[in-house]
# Entry
Amino acid sequence: MRDIIKLLPDHISNQIAAGEVIQRPSSVVKELVENAIDAKADVIQVVIKDAGRTLIQVIDNGVGMSKNDALKCFERHATSKVSDVSDLYSLKTKGFRGEALASIASIAYVSLQTRSDEEELGVKIIFEGSKTIANEVCTCAVGSNFEVKNLFYNVPARRNFLKSDSVEFNHILDEFERVALAHPDLSFLLAHNNQEIFNLPKTILKKRIIDILGKTSMEKLIPINEITDIVKISGFIGKPELAKKSRGEQFFFVNGRFFKDSYFNHAVNKGFEGVLPQKMFPSYFIYLEVDPSKIDVNVHPTKTEIKFEEDRSIYAILMSAVRQSLGKFSIAPTLDFDRETSFDVPFEVQKSTPSEPIINVNPDYNPFKPSTFSKSTNALVTSAFSSAIKSQGFGNRPIQTEEWESFYKIVENEEVESTDQIELNLEVEEKKTYLFKNGYLFTMVKSGMLIVHIRRAKERIIYDLIMSQFVSEALHTQQLLFPIEKSINGIEKKIWSGFQSMFERMGFISELKNDILEISGIPNWLNEENGLECIDHIFNEMSQRDVDKGEIAHFIGLQIAKSHAFSFSKKFKLSEAQILIEQLFQCPEHILTPKGKKILDTIDLNKLTETF
# Structure
C-alpha cells in the first residue's frame, strides 16, 4: 500500500492557522496591539484604511527587536514568552502561541520596521504570502511599526465573506476599546481614513471609561471592590439609568486580559435583580485578579474564553460584590423591618401614572326583576368571548360588564336548544369598538370580531407617510428652542458622520463637536423626549448589525415611526379608534408592519360556535 500521509508545506499550514486566529481585520488589530503591549510600549497608534481591507498599521514605542528576532518572529510557533510547559500556567503576557505574525504574513503584504534602544539603525522586512521580499537596514524610531496591506489578497473566498466597511470597523472598535479599557496606564490613538476616532492619554480607570463612553456617564458609574483569597474584584458598574436594551457595554477582564463568560454575566444580572426593568442589560467594567495557575487561557485561538478552577466561588463573590456596591449607593432594595411591607411598589410600576378607577352604576337595576338571560346563555357567551381572547394571547383578566354589551345584543331573546349547534345573529345594528388594556381594539365586523394592535397600526401608518414624503422631498423639521447636547462614543460618532446627510434629509439637524452631538432640529413626527430615544435606538441597532447603504432611509424612517407610535399608543383614546382604523385600511399593506409583524386579525364567530 502506498503512503498517503504527508506533511503540509509551511505556507499552507500558516493559512490554516490564519483561518483560526485571523478571522477578520479586527483580529489583526488585536494581535498587533497585544504584541505592542507585551513589548512594554506605553504609546500605541493604530491607523486603519477602508476598515482594514487596505491598511492596518500599528506603531509602538516598545523595546523593539534585533535583526535576527525580526526574522524569527514571523516563523510559526516562534515566541519569547514560553520556554517550558509550566510557563503556560503562569502567563502574564497577552500572546504566547507564536502563531499570529506567521498567520498574518501568509495572507497579506506585511512590512515591519523595528529598532531596539541598543542599536543606532533598525531593520526593515517585507513579507508577501509568507515569502521574504526584502530584508534591509533602515532608519527608524525605537519600537516597532507594522503595516498590513491587502488582507486576504490570496484567499479571495475569505475576503468576499467580509461585511461592509461600517460593520468591519465596528469590530475593530470593539477590539480597540477592550485593550484600551484593560490598560488605562497606556496611551492609545485610533484613526480611520485620516479621521481621528480616539486619542486616549494615560489616565486612571474611571477617566478611561468616560473617555470611551462619553461624559454623560461620569455620574452614572459605581465603584465595585472586593478582596478575597480566591479573587480580587475591582472596577465599576453602571447605575440603572446607564442600562441599555443591548449588551454592548459589558466588559470582564482577568489579569489584564479581556474575556467573555455567560456564567459570570449571569452573576452580575442576579446582583441587579429587582433594580432594572425587564429586557434591560446593566453596564459593567469588572476586573478580576486571579492566581494564573488557577485559570486556563489556552482554550480558544482568540483567547477570549477562559476556564476558572474556582468558578462557582467566584460567581457567588461577584454577585455579592455587585449587590453590596448597589446597596452602598442606596440603589438596591434594602431591608427595613420597621417599614410596612404593603407600601413596597414593584419597580415596573414605579414610573407609571395612576389612573382613577371607573365605577359604572346602573340606576335602573332592579334585583327583584327576573333576568332576560338564562344562566346557560350567559355562561355560553362568557365562555365564548373569554376563549376568543385567551386564544389570541391577550390576557386572562375578567371582562367587564360593558364589554359583553355587543354580545348580549346578539343572543338576547334567542333560545339555545343545544350547546353543540348554536346560531348567532350577526346583524348588529350599532357597531361598537372596545379598548383592551390600552393596546388592542376590538370591534364587530360582518365576519366576526376584528382585533387591531394599536401601536403596530400607527407604526405602519406613519412609516408609509414618511416614505411617501421622502421620495419627493426631505422630511419636515421642527427647530428646537434649545439645542440638545448628546454625548456619543467612537462607534456612534462614526455612524452619525458617515450618514449625516441622510439624517438631515430625514429631519435631524445636528452638528458634531468632538464627542458631543448638538441636535438643533428633529423630524416633526417626534418631540424632544422620543427624539432622543429614537436616536438611541438607531445607534443601538446600527452598532449591532449591518445596515446597507441603500436601506438606510427605510431604516431611519422605521425608527421614527416606531418612536412616534410608542408615544401615541400610551396616550390613545377610544374616540380616536375609528380614525385609526380608517387610516390603516388606506395603507397598501395594512395587515403586517414593515418588519413583518401582524397588525390585525379576525376571530370568526362561526369557529367559536364549533368549539362548544
About this structure: DSSP finds 18 helices and 23 strands in the chain. The longest strand covers residues 477-487. Residues 334-344, 371-430 have pLDDT under 50 and may be disordered.
